[in-house]
Amino acid sequence: xxxxxxxxxxxxxxxxxxxxxxxxxxxxxxxxxxxxxxxxxxxxxxxxxxxxxxxxxxxxxxxxxxxxxxxxxxxxxxxxxxxxxxxxxxxxxxxxxxxxxxxxxxxxxxxxxxxxxxxxxxxxxxxxxxxxxxxxxxxxxxxxxxxxxxxxxxxxxxxxxxxxxxxxxxxxxxxxxxxxxxxxxxxxxxxxxxxxxxxxxxxxxxxxxxxxxxxxxxxxxxxxxxxxxxxxxxxxxxxxxxxxxxxxxxxxxxxxxxxxxxxxxxxxxxx
Length: 271
Fold this sequence. Notes:
Layout: H1 2-12, E1 20-27, E2 31-36, E3 42-48, E4 53-59, E5 61-62, E6 68-70, E7 77-84, E8 88-95, E9 99-106, E10 112-119, H2 122-131, E11 134-136, E12 169-170, E13 178-183, H3 201-219, E14 223-226, H4 236-245, E15 250-254
Parallel strand pairs: 1-5, 13-14, 13-15
Antiparallel strand pairs: 1-2, 2-10, 3-4, 3-11, 4-8, 6-7, 7-8, 9-10, 12-14
């Protein structure tokens, strides 16, 4: 019965179960290129132990005719295998030595996926396997078709307030310099979202902003204000407008970088 329900869901859903096929997989020394005969919805890469291998799950694709073959060459990949899972095709890279995916990107049209590989030791491979999946999405507009609108909806938007609500200033009201800290994103704008944990950039930036505030106040050398202290959305003009209105000596905007490997540390500073 469940089989027929699934079949009906696919039938009436308006799209085929497998919209694309894996045409071929090109193996280079430190790079793998997967070719599809049509655009795909996305892919994830996952490092697996026992034995060490890399699994690439491609949403909305099916295995190609060249399902299994030896890779050849002098790179870490010795064999390519293909299979299916619940969402599409799985391409498995069997490894001669531990290697991880450090970067992945789709080409124009979403018909190619290029993965950069780097050989590592067993401990680093184990950490990558424990970190879980890394998701890759094709360019947003590939194959997009504009559907003519059959109706329109008008939503009244109130004009912006002429008076900018100023935040609380922490510290004694004296002549010490004022530092305004801006926690990036917020409200309807989540910023970057972790593909493994779902953690939102807007929540991380607010925690960092509060931590910076507390450290600066503990120094006793400056006063501090935050552009936002909760989960709210501010336009760019409101953010730097707070600093200008308060005549701040320094404006700090906090954002979070995203990296493919997951072992980066430190900070990027733009002035």
